[in-house]
Specification:
single chain; 468 residues; two-stranded antiparallel ribbon; 13 strands
Length: 468
Amino acid sequence: MKKTLTLIICLVSLQIIKAAPNSSTLLASFTLQNSKLLTNTQQTNADTTILPVVDAPAPLSYQSGMYKRRLDSIKKDIQLDYNEYVQSYIEIYMRNREEMAKVLGLTKYYFPIYEKAFHDAGIPDEIKYLSIVESKLDPYAVSRVGATGLWQFMFTTGKLYGMNVDDYVDERRDPIQASYAAAAYLKDAYQEFGDWLVAIASYNCGKSNVERAIEKAGGATDFWSIRQYLPKETRGYVPAFIAVAYVMNYYGQHNITPMACNISLKTDTVLVNKYLPLSMVAQSLNLDLHELAILNPSYKRQAINGTAAKPRRMIIPQIDKAQYAALYDVLNNSTTTSPVAQPVYAAYHAEPKADRLPSYHKVKRGESLGDIADNFGIEVQDLKAWNHLHSNKAVVGQTLKVKESADEPEQKPEKVTHSNYVTYKVKTGDTLSGIASKFDANVDKIRELNGLKKGRLQPGMMIKINKG
C-alpha cells in the first residue's frame, strides 16, 4: 500500500516538477537553498509520490534544543523524536512557505473529517498529519503506480479495506471513506507491531517490508533501530511525518500565514437514490460546479449513480431555506437516466490500447519482482497479493498475474512429456511429497533435478519429474 508523498522533491538550485499521469493536481515544487541538506540525496519512486531521501543530513544547529522542546510539547500518543533527519525535513517544508500556507488552509476542511474517523477507530489524532505527506490534501492525487486520493491507496489495498472502484466512482478519493480505511489499516499495523512510528512506516512500504527489517535488525521493534533496513523512501517517510507535525503546530513562528480555505466549511449531506449529474445540482441551486465537484471527488464522471437499493452520499454547501424547494425538485423530479456502466478494476490511467497489455508475464532469468512491477506500472505488493507470493524472489519460468482483473489463463495440460522426464506446473497447495506420490517419483530426485535445495515450491513454477 503500502504500500507509494506529494510535497515534491527539492534538489540544490533545481526545481523538479512531478506531474502525476492524467492528474492536473500534484504539480508543485520545492526549492532547497541549503546545499548541505541533500548532499548525496537520491530520488526514489514509491507507491505515492516522490520524497527526498536525505542520506547525509546537515549537522544540528544551535537551535536544535528549541525544536526538540517544541516537538516534546505537542507529543501525545505518538513519539515525535527529534534528530538531524527530522530537522532536514523541517527545513525542506519550511522553505516552501506558499505551499504550506495552502495546505494549512485546506486543513480547516479535511482535518475535522480525519479527526472523527480516528476518534471512532480509537487511534491517535496526530496521524492526520500523514495525509499531508501522502497527498498534500489533494483528493485527486494519483501516483506513478496508481495510488490514489488523500490517503494514497492502491487498488488492491483499497478493495481490502472496503473501497469500491468502478466506472462511476473511485471511493479512494472519498475523504470520509478513505479516512476510515486509513484508520483501519494503521490500527491493524499498530496491533501487529506495537509502535506507531513503525505502523506509519508500514503504511508507506507495506507490512512485509517492515517484518523483514525487524528480522534484519535482530528483532528490534522501534523505527530508528530498523530504519537502515527499510526501503529508501520509507527511511525519510517517518521523519517527514514528524516534520509536518512540527510545521502544522509552529508555522506562525516561521512567518507562514495560512491561506483561506477554498472549500465550503459548512455543508449539508444529501442521499441520492438515482443518477444525478452534479452539473444539474449546481444549476438548480446556483452553485459553482468546481466547488461541488471538490466536495464530491469520488464521482469520476461528476455524476452520482445512486439507486433506491444503494443511495449515495452527496455533499453540498449549506443552503438557505429558500433553496429547499429547488433541491427537492432536482432530487425527485429530474428525469436524467444513467448510461450502462461498465466496471473497471484497475485502470488508473486511460492509456491508448491499455486493454492490449498482457495479463500474465513469465519470469525470465535475471528479473526481480521489482523489475516486473516497474515494467507493468504496478506495485510489488499487489504483484505478490495477486499471485499469493510470500517472498520477494521471482522464480524463473513462473507465470505471474500482472493485472488485478486478469482472467485465469486457459487450462492447458499440466504435464509436458519429454524423453526422460515430464514437466509439471506447480499449483497452490502442492508439496514435493504429494507431487512425487502422484507421479510415482522420488522426492530427492525431484529436488536434485530442479535444484530445489530447500524444497520450497511456488505456485506457477515448472518442475521436471523423472520418468519411472
